[in-house]
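Lay summary. Proteins are chains of building blocks that fold into shapes, and those shapes determine what they do. In this project we predict the shape from the chain. Here is one chain we studied, written as its sequence of building blocks.
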Amino acid sequence: MSGPTRTSIELYRDLLRLIHNIAPGITSPKSRALRTMVRSEFDKSKSLSPTNPNDVSKIESLKANAIRALSNYMLYVGGIHDKGKGGKLGLAMDSFHKKSLDGMSRGTDTDEGEKR
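And here is the predicted shape, written in a compact code that computers can read:
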């Protein structure tokens, strides 16, 4: 077991709370766009049923993607705040991003393009 699992409703609420922190208010264009995106992603999976064995793995995969997105955003925000204080996380994230962009412009993956 990797820890407690979150229900789809809990993830949806967490994402809405995150949107509230990213773009306060419900009338800003950024807030509306983010809410629409989250709502559409959840609407796409409305037909999946937790009682259907074939759908269980799809549901778990979608939930894992949502948790990963939340985690990545929190890491990103932490890196932004860390960089301003002279921390290494933000600088490492910038370096990784630059390498990723360089790899994309060359048409190679960053892991395959580097020689160690």
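What the prediction tells us: Residues 53-84 form the longest helix (32 residues).
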